[in-house]
Design goal:
The protein is α/β, with parallel strands linked by helices. It folds into two domains: about 325 residues, ABC transporter type 1, transmembrane domain (ABC transporter transmembrane region fold, Up-down Bundle), CATH 1.20.1560; about 240 residues, Rossmann fold (3-Layer(aba) Sandwich), CATH 3.40.50.300. Helix content is about 65%, strand content about 10%. It is built from 20 helices and 14 strands. α7 packs parallel to α11.
Length: about 575
Amino acid sequence: MNKKYNTGTLKKVFNYIKRYRILLFLTIILAAVTVALTLYIPILAGRAVDFIVGKNNVNFEAVLDILLKIGIISSITALLQWVMNNINNKITFHTTRDIRDEAFKKIQILPLKYLDKHTHGDIVNRLISDVDQFAEGLLMGFTQLFTGAATIVGTFLFMLSINWVITAVVVILTPMSLLVASFIAKRTYNMFKLQSEIRAEQTSFINEMISNQKVVQAFSRETKTQKEFDEINEDLEKSSLRAIFYSSITNPGTRFINSVIYAGVGLTGALAAVSGGISVGGLTSFLSYANQYTKPFNEISGVITELQNALACAARIFELIEEKPQIPDSDDAIVLDKVSGKIDLENVEFSYTKDRKLIENLNLNVEPGQRVAIVGPTGSGKTTLINLLMRFYDVNDGSIEMDGFDIRNITRKSLRRSFGMVLQETWLKSGTIRENIVMGKPDATEKEITEAAKLSHAHSFIKRLLKGYDTVINEDGGSLSQGEKQLLCITRVMLTLPPVLILDEATSSIDTRTELKIQEAFAKMMKGRTSFIVAHRLSTIVEADTILVLKDGSIIEQGKHNELLKQNGFYAKLYNSQFNI
């Protein structure tokens, strides 16, 4: 199973590498040339030995001439190896760049359910750590695999030209080192895969704890958090040590076999030299070749174990790349231009998982300009309804229409451009205050930006910042308070003024005085615009045109505030419980 899995992963890797086939061809040529030059040196060394006949009987002129040739060939070989290494680096890092690009592009088109099921740390780990591990293994493979293969072929031919009997001894014994390497490699793949998975878990845990450090300290969970981290860290240590221990056996095992081969060559070569079957210089060359012939086997066996780690990491990356993307917009998808805001839900059914139904047989007709409030207990489907309207998820059955068109037949870009959202959770990015405000309208003028900020009552606090609208913040908002971050999100919507608004406790982090002012601004903004207001504080929705009371994914009550109170049903209980009536 692992063999088949590895083969499949290797094929995918080669599909990326073949884009650089010219560089690949060059590195193979350079590997062959450098090996040929390297293997020619022992022949020259053997000839030099043969010119040293005995005491006071040395042909110094011939020896010096050979030494000069060796020096020139060594210099050329070193230069070519430097060029080859640079080409290998280029192939490796171009390939990993392409894989990272494709993986990041895939994230942009993945359905939200994938991101909901996988921790952010795991996804980040795949794109960064796993790709880095894969690059190291691939680079080692390029550096040693081609050179090693060329060395094996070259030394075999040179040895064969000197003495076929001794060559036979080397060739018969050498494959034992590959058998040892293969035996260990088969058992290390799963170990490296486990190591990679635990590393991803650790990255995810660290990411979560750093981003929520205030929560950790607020609930005095430092000790418990440290204990949980230590457990993950210990698991990573055990899996890493186990994988490295087994992979480290390869090198000593193959080296032992190589030493046996070298001793065998020395013994058979000495007997051949005594009987006149080979000269002393020839034996010197042969011993050098025997060492060079076995060395690539040792290196390749090391590459094989390293490749197990690389392939385990590559498999995780390809899992991400090969995930099914969200259903793309059809070629004839409608581009919404002038949106009135009429929305109809017909027999909508939806669930995040097959075994747990959430929304069933949901019907709703919203006329343009209506203000629709959505209330209900936790888990009743309020946020899910918003996700369906924005088409972050597609309905399992039924349909949602905007202006008479099924939203599945509308381009996502034009659909989402028709909505303006302000949620409890703030959405900010690293950049200036201005860049965060104009996300929905990049071509906004300075006057439009300041007017929107004044409407949302954000202008005053922005002007107090050191660089005003040019103040740089990170994705967490930096030193901004939660209320100030929410005001920026409100400003963003004020600037774009979309035809449909979604407000999910949009003023939950704002002081009461400012909230009253923003509610006035919202009232002006909602005039003539279809609005969906997800409310927890029911006092904020008494003016809504219609109130939907959700429970277990169904609308159990619907009507105006006073009408629902008169019914003395679920809504009345919710409303009265907030005021202890």
